[in-house]
């Protein structure tokens, strides 16, 4: 079953074609990576997937529904950790989890989520007093507290130190094994290569290559996804 189907998606801001005819599908249970440099159209694409932006053209289906028209219904089944996600500094970890659980008709048990993401020792800590890695872990937990079928993670590890980054990778691995469909947006090629079953390499609003990381690497005759990206860029200039 396809969890996500995107066909010829287009979105412009004035003269900027942020997303310029993007097509991809994500199977249920797959971890799908959208990778590319700043301004490639990654965030605009996921904002359309979440129904936060209305496309100018193309079709989108998430769990069989149109996000622009059925955003409320889909919001119950999708979890999102977005780039600008922020919480009030004074909210405590436990309060945030309880609050987010209350948004859903059938949430996960927030206590279990807190335990699973090793947040229990921080339960009474205010958001503003958490380290960068702890904040990110809380954001992930909040994206999952609704027990979603699809989770969108945008720039999950940006700003984290290498240890926190690896720890976050491990958590995404756990999520993957639980059968959740994950869309991972990143400008880190190593992360995408390590975590994703399928990758779309974005550049200037278009998909330059798609497949498993190994397929893309083999097709470009390179040794890593990052090298593959630059090889692809070289051929399109
Ligand atoms: N609200 C907006 N108004 C005008 N231009 C925008 C807006 N949002 C995005 N853009 C432009 O659209 C293009 C794609 O932006 P987008 O944020 O989707 O890229 P991205 O790949 O997510 O980049 P980053 O990695 O920097 O977040 C960029 O040129 C950006 O400047």
Automatic annotation (TrEMBL):
UniProt entry tagged with the keyword Ribosomal protein: no
Localization terms from the record: Cell membrane
Keyword flag Nucleotide-binding: yes
Any one GO molecular function term: ATP hydrolysis activity
Cellular component GO terms, alphabetical: plasma membrane
InterPro entries: AAA+_ATPase, ABC_transporter-like_ATP-bd, ABC_transporter-like_CS, ABC_transporter_ATP-binding, P-loop_NTPase
Sorted UniProt keywords: Antibiotic resistance, ATP-binding, Nucleotide-binding, Transport
Signal peptide: none
UniProt cross-references to Pfam families, sorted A to Z: ABC_tran (PF00005)
ABC transporter domain location: 4-229
Membrane topology qualifier: Peripheral membrane protein
GO biological process, one term: response to antibiotic
Record protein name field: ABC-2 type transport system ATP-binding protein
């Amino acid at each position: 079953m396809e969890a996500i189907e995107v066909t010829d998606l287009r979105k412009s801001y004035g003269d900027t074609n942020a997303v310029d005819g993007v097509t991809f599908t994500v199977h249920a249970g797959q971890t799908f990576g959208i990778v590319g440099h700043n301004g490639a159209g990654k965030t605009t694409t996921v904002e359309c997937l979440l129904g936060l932006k209305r496309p100018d053209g193309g079709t989108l289906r998430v769990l069989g529904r149109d996000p622009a028209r059925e955003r409320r219904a889909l919001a119950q089944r999708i979890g999102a950790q977005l780039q600008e996600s922020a919480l009030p500094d004074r909210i405590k970890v436990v309060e945030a989890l309880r609050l987010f659980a209350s948004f859903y008709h059938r949430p996960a048990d927030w206590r279990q989520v807190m335990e699973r993401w090793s947040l229990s020792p921080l339960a009474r800590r205010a958001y503003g007093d958490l380290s960068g890695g702890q904040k990110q872990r809380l954001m992930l937990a909040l994206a999952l507290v609704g027990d979603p079928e699809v989770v969108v993670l945008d720039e999950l590890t940006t700003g984290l130190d290498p240890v926190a980054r690896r720890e976050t990778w491990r958590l995404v691995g756990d999520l993957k094994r639980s059968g959740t469909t994950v869309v991972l947006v990143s400008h880190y090629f190593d992360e995408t290569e390590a975590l994703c079953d399928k990758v779309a390499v974005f550049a200037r609003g278009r998909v330059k290559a798609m497949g498993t990381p190994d397929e893309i690497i083999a097709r470009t005759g390179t040794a890593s996804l990052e090298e593959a990206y630059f090889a692809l860029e070289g051929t399109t200039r």
